[in-house]
Predict the structure of NADH:flavin oxidoreductase.
Amino acid sequence: MSILFAPINLGNMRIENRFIHSATYEVMASETGEVSDKLVKRYQNLAKGEVGLIIPGYMYVHPLGRSYKFQTGIHNDEMIPGLKKLVETVHQEGGKIAFQLAHAGRQTTKAMIGQTPIGPSSRGRDPVNFVKPMEMTADQIQDVIQAFGVAAKRAVEAGADGIQLHAAHGYLINQFISPFFNQRKDEWGGSDANRFRFLKELISEVRNALPQGMPVLVKLNTHDYTPQEGVTPSLAVTYAGWLADLKIDGLEISCGSAVYSYMNMCRGDVPVKELVNSLPFWKKPLGKLMMKSMVGKYDLKEGYNLEAAKMIKPVLGEIPLFVVGGLRKVAQMTEALEQQYADCISMCRPFIREPFIVKKIKEGKTDSVACVSCNRCLAAVPSNMTVRCYNKGFPTP
Ligand SMILES: Cc1cc2nc3c(=O)[nH]c(=O)nc-3n(C[C@H](O)[C@H](O)[C@H](O)COP(=O)(O)O)c2cc1C
């Protein structure tokens, strides 16, 4: 039997194969953050499709950490019934589910959260939302750490099988561990160890909130692609070593950030028209020029985080490594596991197009996913359009 279908343990959770549904913002929650029936249905299908572990879209742990209008919340107890329904549905189909806990930090807007976004430092204005964040006080940092802990408890109450801390893609945890975003001089900045402290404290806080053995996973960037140096492959290796010392139960590696370098995060075509459509009219002319200048620079390199995986894997010891990013061919996935570059194959866009792809691979019906990385699913996000495959010619589900 293919190595792709060998079970693996993450903490006390056993998953039946090596396929992971990488967190995918669905644009399907209510405006107050509750899980909707549509969102539940999406994951029911993925569980029916025999995905080993499902990680739904990032969930905001604190009202100030919300990025989008239709994002799922885990920031108050009223969210629990919907989250429970989501978990129960996945379990009924025999699936496993871990919640990705996130805080947007500076990667949101005043219009979304009602005040100036917060971050480790107030550095600069980003090129998309032009946000200049407010530097977090020591009390605010503690407040956010606690919010992650309480959110983890809610995940337990909802019955989730694990949690994942979203330390990638330019969100708050990524901001703390990045020398580009974090210019603090107190105990939360100034050195790699100090910048890592926030993530270290979060791991300890969520561990205390979870039952023994319930897996704590982390999604980490191996390259931020920020204008000046943020997390780089060599720094990611250092951080991975520290995460191994903290005995996390699995590490997923990615790259890029949602504001500064989203095309690094999701390599493939630049959907100029769709991206420009999502902009307010006054941003359209400049936006169009910017998007056009990006065309052809981010073509999909299959398995674009595999080189980083090869660097990270040796420092992790026994801790499973999941690699995400442009994995499209079954032969390449198999090789990645057989050569021990990684332990699990994580995918996002391919599951948007084919929720049943794992089953198809298992039954030997395909040797490649159908996703062509046109990125129209990504471009739908700023327009608040529900996630689905918007590729021309692909039937609407
Ligand atoms: C529509 C969309 C939504 C996404 N939402 C999230 C998210 O909530 N959390 C996250 O960590 N990554 C998110 N990502 C990034 C993916 O998880 C993944 O890292 C990236 O798409 C590369 O993998 P792929 O080539 O298999 O798509 C999203 C990507 C897309 C296209």
User: Anything to note?
Assistant: The chain has a mean pLDDT of 96.
